[in-house]
From TrEMBL:
MF GO annotations: beta-catenin binding; cadherin binding; calcium ion binding
Signal sequence residues: 1-21
Cellular compartments per GO CC: adherens junction; catenin complex
Name recorded for this polypeptide: Cadherin-6
Length: 804
């Protein structure tokens, strides 16, 4: 059987001491290794005894010797010390970290081991016969456990911690817990047993030595006195004994604020100056109370004790200032000095500190109003003035009034902004502000006129004030009522007396206060129609008789007089046109065209005389005489009709075409896209030459050759003296219109076309021409050359045909 010899090591010795053989283990160690066949089996098993003894080795970490560190010795009872036994080591670190002497079984560590890297190694050992290389004993497992020494100092997770605790906290209030870790073995000795202590931060804080909890140690710590504290905490192993390792950390502790300080005014009296022109709601000053607290605990609210009519104070939430604002408009002339008290208090209170303290303060505010040059002020804004229409120009409309609010009461002048009175209907007296009309007003054109009146200080024109003036035009009964619409009225031929043919109504652009009331009437002597007023501003048109005939009268004009009830009474006459129509038995209109009267069988003497008169006018005198001589009275009428037809045919035959040619007219039409230059285009043709060929210049240059003359001859234009006949003509027409009693009573424009006598072409109009077409001689067109050849052929041939 193999005996294990372990080296007994003392912590105080730097090197291992002598080994001591372990006591011999009885044979039942095999049962501990699980070699028995079962539990409760009474049978005796014949097996060889197990030669290994199970145990573990201990090795001190961080060996500092120069030679290999001795671990222990393996020995088997099979070893007779004859050199035939060979010891073999396998497992974790075998051959590298741990080596074994094959002959003696001594185990050594080749390297310096650190328990914090690996605390235990598991290896296997076996015995082999050198001669046969057979295992003399089966391998068994054993452990090498690294024994810890205090070689690691405690370490905190952070180099610096941050924590906070409310100010004024009680003693023992927990702030924060900081802990350190020691990598040494906590199950062996005191290498990892830590003790905490405070190196810096007393007497304000303390630390629990076992768990590292930091607590307050001083009562009444005030943030407003000191806010931040630096506390140094130490953790030491070996239970804090001398020789132990230690580590430190810093804890930054901040006292958080609580509302333990009330707001206070540094100065309990403030003086503020405000100009009287400050707008309502405008700020005139700021005040501030001091509160050493911060954040929510320093929020304040300002108010005026008892309130005030002229001023108000609001809190600026950003700066925690009280802003004084104007509540009503200030007036230096009315009151110049104001005084009131202001209160400030915290918005949020802490119930722990409200006892014995008043978290509010007071201050007195004195406001002085300064005078400024103010613009004029109107007595009213706006003005509403009423005026009747048709008021004559220059009539009084109303008056506006403004004054200088300053103590000097400077004079003011008035004017109308003409951008609001483009038609210049009104005028204003610059001194007293009286508004008058420049033109008559018509309510039917515009019922309201909105103008702006400007008041300006005479001494300082920059000080101006505008006020709207609304002028309402009151109605005057100056318009007569008339038909509300255009009526299409008819009466049936078979109508009976008293039948309704039309209901009429009227409108009036005037608006009387009591409403419209119209009266309808027609001439009582009207034999055909009558009217019935319905008393609701409408009237019915009835037939007075029956038996209307289109042959006798196809249309009737019925004058209807419409009067109103306002003062002065206005009336007008509207004409109702009544057509006579053919209707069916139900009164539905079928046709309203007048019937054509048939001719009578014979002609009366008067009819014959009328026909002969027409013939005499149409025919020449010799033709009329021939009719009277050759034909008897009974046949003259028939022949007269024949003569009329013959004359009409002859007159139609005499209308010759403009172009006398057998060719198609379309072949003679030439289209040009050129636009002439008007009367000043003298290069195209001379209109005077067309009218007076005898004045044609013989040296007229052709356009198809280069002219020999540098400056062609031009006819001089009529001078201004030659235009006198035009002025005489216009003056004469003006006198005729002024003396014409039938001319309209209003201004009108008359246009006349008169060229005057200065034109060589004279008048182109045929209205005042005494010559007829037959009086013209067109032979001169043949001498104008090829451009006028076609024109000459047309008119010369026409002249020859007329003579033939």
């Amino acid at each position: 059987m193999i005996a294990h010899q372990l080296l007994l090591l003392l912590l105080t010795l730097p090197s291992p001491g002598p080994t001591a053989a372990l006591p011999f283990m009885p044979g039942n160690i095999g049962d501990m290794l699980g070699l028995s066949d079962g539990v409760g089996d009474s049978r005796v098993l014949h097996r060889s005894k197990r030669g290994w003894m199970w145990n573990q080795f201990f090795l001190m970490e961080e060996y500092t010797g120069n030679d290999h560190q001795y671990v222990g010795k393996l020995h088997s009872n099979m070893d007779k010390d004859d050199g035939n036994v060979k010891y073999v080591l396998t497992g974790e670190g075998a051959g590298s970290l741990f080596i074994i002497d094959e002959k003696s079984g001594d185990i050594h560590a080749t390297k310096r081991l650190d328990r914090e890297e690996k605390a235990m190694y598991t290896l296997h050992a076996k015995v082999i016969d050198r001669r046969t290389n057979r295992e003399m004993e089966a391998d068994t497992e054993f452990n090498i456990k690294i024994h810890d020494i205090n070689d690691n100092e405690p370490k905190f997770a952070k180099e610096i911690y941050f924590a906070s605790v409310p100010e004024m906290s009680e003693v023992g209030t927990s702030v924060v817990t900081v802990t350190a870790n020691d990598a040494d073995d906590q199950t062996y000795g005191n290498s990892a047993r830590l003790v905490y202590s405070i190196l810096q931060g007393q007497p304000y804080f303390s630390v629990d030595s076992e768990n590292g909890t930091i607590k307050t140690a001083l009562p009444g710590m005030d943030r407003e006195v000191k806010e931040n504290y630096q506390v140094v905490i130490q953790a030491k192993d070996m239970a804090g004994q001398m020789g132990g390792l230690s580590g430190t950390t810093t804890v930054s502790i901040t006292l958080s604020d609580v509302n333990d300080s009330p707001p206070r005014f540094a100065n309990h009296s403030f003086r503020v100056t405000a100009v009287e022109s400050t707008e309502v709601g405008g700020a005139i000053g700021r005040i501030k109370a001091d509160d050493p607290d911060i954040g929510r605990n320093a929020e304040m609210d300002y108010s005026i004790v008892g309130g005030h009519d002229m001023f108000n104070i609001i809190t600026d939430q950003t700066t925690q200032e009280g802003v004084l604002v104007v509540r009503k408009a200030l007036d230096y002339e009315d009151k110049r000095d104001y005084e009131f008290r202001v209160e400030v208090r915290n918005t949020y209170l802490d119930a722990r500190f409200v006892h014995g303290l008043q978290f509010k303060d007071y201050a007195t505010i004195r406001v002085t109003v300064e005078d400024v040059d103010e613009p004029p002020v109107f007595t009213r804004n706006p003005y509403v003035i009423e005026v009747h229409e048709d008021t004559a120009a220059g009539s009084f409309v109303g008056v506006v009034s403004a004054r200088d609010p300053d103590a000097e009461n400077k004079p003011v002048k008035y004017s109308i902004d003409r951008h609001t009175d483009l038609e210049r209907l009104f005028n204003i007296d610059s001194v007293n502000g009286s508004i008058t009309t420049l033109k008559a007003l018509d309510r039917e054109m515009s019922r309201w006129h909105n103008i702006s009146v400007v008041a300006t200080e005479i001494n300082n024109p920059r000080q101006t004030t505008r006020v709207p003036v609304f002028i309402k035009v009151l109605d005057v009964n100056d318009n007569a009522p008339e038909f509300a619409m255009s009526y299409d009225t008819f009466v049936c031929e078979n109508v009976k007396a008293g039948q309704l043919i039309q209901t009429i109504s009227a409108v009036d652009t005037d608006e009387p206060l009591v409403g419209h009331k119209f009266v309808f009437s027609i001439t009582p002597a009207n034999p055909n129609f009558t009217i019935v007023d319905r008393e609701d501003n409408t009237a019915n048109i009835l037939t007075r008789r029956g038996g209307f005939r289109r042959r006798e009268m196809s249309m009737y004009f019925l004058p209807v007089v419409i009067s109103d009830n306002d003062y002065p009474i206005q009336s007008s006459t509207s004409t109702l046109i009544v057509r006579v129509c053919a209707c069916d038995s139900r009164g539905n209109m079928q046709t309203c065209n007048p019937e054509v009267l048939p001719f009578s069988d014979g002609l009366t003497t008067g009819a014959l005389v009328a026909i002969l008169l027409c013939v005499v006018i149409l025919l020449s005198e010799y033709m009329a005489a021939l009719i009277l001589v050759l034909f008897p009275t009974s046949n003259r009428s028939l022949f007269s009709l024949i003569v009329v037809l013959f004359a009409a045919l002859r007159r139609q035959r005499k209308k010759e075409p403009l172009i006398i040619s057998k060719e198609d007219v379309r072949d003679n039409v030439v289209s040009y896209n050129d636009e002439g230059g008007g009367e000043e285009d003298t290069q195209a043709f001379d209109i005077g030459t067309l009218r007076h060929p005898e004045v044609m210049d013989g040296n007229k240059m052709r356009r198809d050759i280069i002219p020999e003359m540098l400056f062609p001859y031009r006819r001089s234009s009529p001078t201004k003296d030659h235009n006198g006949d035009v002025r005489d003509f216009i003056n004469g027409r003006l006198q005729d219109n002024d003396s014409d009693p039938t001319a309209p009573p209003y201004d009108s424009l008359a246009t006349y076309a008169y060229e005057g006598s200065g034109s060589l072409a004279e008048s182109l109009s045929s209205l005042e021409s005494g010559a007829t077409e037959g009086d013209q001689d067109y032979d001169y067109l043949t001498s104008w050359g090829p451009p006028f050849k076609k024109l000459a052929e047309m008119y010369v041939a026409k002249s020859l045909d007329r003579e033939t």
